[in-house]
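Protein 1 of 2
SEQ + STRUCT:
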Amino acid sequence: MTPHTSALPLQAVLFDMDGTLVDTERLWWEAVEQVAGRPLGEADQPEVLGRPVEHTAAWLAAADGRDGDDLAAELHREFADRVRTGIVPRPGALDLLDALARAGIPTALVTASPRAVADVVLDALGPERFAVSVTADDTSRTKPAPDPYLAACRALGVEPVRCVAVEDTETGVASAEAAGCAVLAVPSLAPIDSAPGRTVRDSLVGVTPKELRNMVAPELRVMSWNLWLGGAPVDDHRAKQLKVVLETGADVVGLQETAGTSAQELAEALGWHHHRAGENLGIISRHPITARFGDPDVGFYGAAGVRIEVAPGREVDVWTAHLHYTPYGPYESAFDGLPAAELIAHEEVRLTQMRDTLGRIAEAADDAVPVVLVGDFNCPSHLDRADVEWPVTQAAQEAGFADSYREAHPDPAAEPGHTWSPIHPVHEDGSGRTEPQDRIDFVLHRGLTVLDSRTVVSGTPRPWPDVAGNEWPSDHAAVLTVFAVGRAPFAVRGA
């Protein structure tokens, strides 16, 4: 099957000004030389290029004892005079701005220069070209802090991860990347190295909106799903499972309770790739599987993983885990009234299984490859219930894993995210006791950006035992998280 990459829509392009859109870096350099009273060299670049006036003024003041405020005012005058008489658009800049306008992609000007200078440049370029402009006067911190780019995104109503920033200095690149933007770096006076999430070009000549769209990280939709004995308690379960996968747009699904063949059968029906581990675990993926991890003969409980290639140069490790179901803490808490210390002590079996899972992940890990860990952990999260420091999810957090659902929905009272159980409103022992509802299925990650996360249940499931006709073919809710996937390094290339 041809891999499907779901690229994020490019919401906006954010342009630095000096040295990126207009050739003002040279003018700024000349202004600083004039005020400094000496030629500048390579060693001076970190204090001059991409820096706000106040920074360079303070640097000059420290060197010769002059007043920093007076130096800043002098730098402002020298630079503004040069801009008014010597502004020159950078090669390809106006063509790219016009192409973005035709494509309906909004743009912003994001500069460390003061408003007075930016307005002179905007008048020369055409202020109508930019929906928003952010200057050194508009944020409490300027570049290399992320504040200017974050401010521009807020003003445009866009997400940084869905934007490309165009920069010409390391300082500006650091600002844009700290905000979460993909970066097109076009060095003006000093070289810029390639890095993840960053494309380096010699010029803006020939850059197109399509190329900028391709720089935005693709999204990866990851789902965790306990199939409930392969789905056997529900009629026509395989067709219903396929319907869920297609309607959610999932790209990769970590499965538990597969009844041996579910992963293979689902993958074959979808034309996807799959990995089977033992009789209980499986992973299906629309993207190619390039490596398999863990014990292929794992028992009913345990973990298994794969590495998938989301796009050329962009890989993600995805692990699925199923931890033992007994003793079940929510029952011991609600029905037996056990105190927190005993509940925590009874998590030892699952904690051991989680530590084994984390150890296997560490053995297979590549520092350059993000990791997703999904699964039915059969225990609540320490992020949800302050009365008990549930240790299994704590262990994952200590290993660097973040809970994607709680990132998207930080308030457990407002968004509990319960996954157990859509078909058990009351306990199935016939006692009539209310079944504890908890979040015990998870999509954890290390190294990705969460765009959204939600629980998934189709239809309105009838309660146990009248479940055969349910549209939803499981006793758990699934969890679906949408991630933005980072970019591998790109080589420097010409226009």
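Protein 2 of 2
SEQ + STRUCT:
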Amino acid sequence: MSGRPDSDTGPETVDSEAAADQDGTEDPADGEEDARRARWTAAGTGAALTLAGLAAALLRLTRSAPALAPAAYAAGAAVCAAAAVLGSRGRTRRALWLLVAGAMVMALGDQFD
């Protein structure tokens, strides 16, 4: 059996209640910061995918592509816009699923091209 040379082999009689108190407490500000970061990420990603979908729809409209391609890009952009709104309101799990669905609709539009 090999172990790290810097491992501590000190006594294992630690006060279990004190250890549980140290491990179980979290700073509430950390959770708020994580939630804020998740909201910003969902809203920013949704906005970026919305702009990309609208740009792709406009590019497909100017070329001789089937009408289904720009419609799929525009529909995917609308779904991503809804995800950005949900993400900014704190519904990040639903926003993630909508972002995935919107990207899949835009990928389907790429297949029509």
